[in-house]
Amino acid sequence: MNSLVNRAIEEFLRSTYGEVMVQAITDEAAVSVGRLAPAGAGFATAGLDRAAFRLAKPRAEMFEDMGGWMTRIEPIRRLLRFSGRDFRDFLLRLDELPGRAHLVLPDLIVPRLQVEATDQSVCLSMLEPDEAWQHLLVGLIRGMADDYGALCLIAADGSAIRIDIWDEQFAEGRMFCLQSDLLSDQVLS
Fold first, then answer.
1. Which residues belong to any copy of the Heme NO-binding domain (predicted)?
2. pLDDT band at 60 (very low <50, low <70, confident <90, very high)
3. Distance of alpha carbon 100 from alpha carbon 132, whole angstroms
4. Which residues of 122-137 are buried (b: 16+ CB within 10 A; e: fewer)?
5. How far is 63 from 8, CA to CA, in rounded Å?
6. Residue 178 DSSP symbol
């Protein structure tokens, strides 16, 4: 599982900041360990910490950026969009995220989530608080708000995330269809 997390962080850094950043962090990890590190070693959260230091960005912002980046990966985006017909429905089903993640990646430990909703806001509480997961989820929720075309304010508050929804149809959301283009082409012919 660590290699999968390392790979995801490495790809996030590579696609966002370039190969030079990835190589610099790999080199720093090798020096800190005192030996030559294999390709892709030295990442996990330490890789994000090193990148945050090099970029003079808060650690929390790096995790949020990674969460937003994940929503632009089409297979992940499709899995997330399958969770709700609109942004509010998506948010109300986030408590199912740990179970769904476990189906795909059994060794990945996602903190349990509790969702509470009012007319205009949704509060997502982490039952096992984890700052890294919290900020990753904030970025993921921001990315999905954009995907659905919703206007909202998202804020981390203690071990909770508060989402104030102002307009669910503020902008045109990205197109989403359960069937792939290949399948729809076959059905039409």
1. 4-148
2. very high
3. 19
4. bbbbbeeeeebbbbbb
5. 12
6. S
